[in-house]
Amino acid sequence: MAVMAHQKKLEELHKALLDAYRTISSLRQMVQYGLDENLEEIVGSGTLSDIVFDLVQWADSCGKLDKLIQVAYRHNDGNPLLKAFVNEYGNHSKTVVEQELEHRRITVRLIIDGDFEDFSDADQEKLQTAINNLLRVKADTAIITKTESGSVIAHVELPENQLENLYSLFSEGKLSNLGVIEFDLSDADLIGANLRDVDLRGASLRKADLSNADLFLADLRDADLRDVDLVGADLRGADLRKTDLKGANLYLADLVGADLRGADLRDADLKGANLRDANLRGASLRKTDLRGASLRKADLSNADLFLADLYLADLRGADLRGADLRDADLRDTDLTIVQYDERTIWPDGFDLIKEIVPVRV
Asked: In what order do the strands lie in the sheet with 152-159?
């Protein structure tokens, strides 16, 4: 029975993939950017149905079936058959890792105005007691180090679900009487963290690991996310206005409907990311890697896309009015019904009429 059920699952996945990816080109992009595999190297030749069949069999044989399902759905979550398949066969049970994440504790660095040499055990106990009382949970400040200038760094370990509360206390000045002058999350381990709807406006998260984190509807306005790892993160509807994301890794991140107005995404990696309906008005995307990214109906008006790599990107219905696309790589970019105006700057020699006939407004 188990064998028959598994074969049924493979058959249904085959049907769903055929419906979601109706050309070999679209399938190739999903495999390349989602699985980091060359489609031609892992499957045989033949019809699209034959290729999808071989792909499913390959994924099943090498233990990558769940990954294939995840990537295929992330790249085309609007397809009804694929969505129905995920709802039917998706693994809704909690894994050991997920259960561990629910009880995970994280470490925050609080910079305290004062001399490290004068910071006593009594001061440390006072800080810990105050935080415990304010949060009404147990936090641990067992580790005290110092900055290069000699100030005190209190390493506060607390439950992950108390991160926003502690940050709110800092933002509202309720830790100032303890001498706390900075809230530092740089280099923090937040892999897979549940930060849905979190308010971390202006927070310092430089080089933090937020891969696969749930940041749905998070408020990260003006935050420092330089060089942060956001691979596979869920940032749907997140507020990232004027956020510094220079050099960030957003490979396969889900940014559907995110607000990135004025964000700095220079040199960021957005390969295969889903930016459908995202607002990128006035954003800096200089030298940004957007290969295979979905930017359908995204607002890129007045965006800086100088030297951006948009190879195989989907810009159908995107707003490019006033956008600067000088020296951008637009090879095989889908520009169907894009909006542009006299302020739009295209790459030298780019024949827009030859590539596609967009809607001029």
From this structure: 140-146, 152-159, 105-112, 180-184
Q: Which pairs from 80-85 meet CB under 8 Å and 24+ separation?
A: 80/19, 81/15, 81/16, 81/19, 81/20, 82/16, 82/17, 82/19, 82/20, 84/16, 85/12, 85/13, 85/16
pLDDT of residue 15: 94
Residue 106 · residue 51 · CB < 8 Å: no
Q: What whole-number percentage of the chain has pLDDT above 90?
A: 59
222 and 204 in contact (C-beta within 8 Å)? no
Mapping DSSP onto H, E and C, the string for the chain reads CHHHHHHHHHHHHHHHHHHHCCCHHHHHHHHHHHHCCCHHHHCCCCCHHHHHHHHHHHHHHCCCHHHHHHHHHHHCCCCHHHHHHHHHHCCCCCCHHHHHHHCCEEEEEEEECCCHHHCCHHHHHHHHHHHHHHHCCCCEEEEEEECCCCCEEEEEEEEHHHHHHHHHHHHCCCCHHHCEEEEECCCCECCCCECCCCECCCCECCCCECCCCECCCCECCCCECCCCECCCCECCCCECCCCECCCCECCCCECCCCECCCCECCCCECCCCECCCCECCCCECCCCECCCCECCCCECCCCECCCCECCCCECCCCECCCCECCCCECCCCECCCCEECCCCECCCCCCHHHHCCCEEC
Calpha distance 139→129 (Å, rounded) = 9
Count of C-beta atoms within a 10 Å radius of residue 56: 21
Look-up of token digits 């406006």? 201
339: closest CA among 354, 313, 357? Answer: 357
| Angle of the 80-89 helix axis to the 2-20 helix axis, nearest 10 | 160
Give the Cα separation of 222 and 252 in Å (integer).
23
Query: 249-305 pLDDT, tens per residue?
Result: 999 999 999 999 999 999 999 999 999 999 999 999 999 999 999 999 999 999 999
Rounded-to-integer distance, Cα 25 and Cα 62, Å: 23
276's tokens: 């459908």
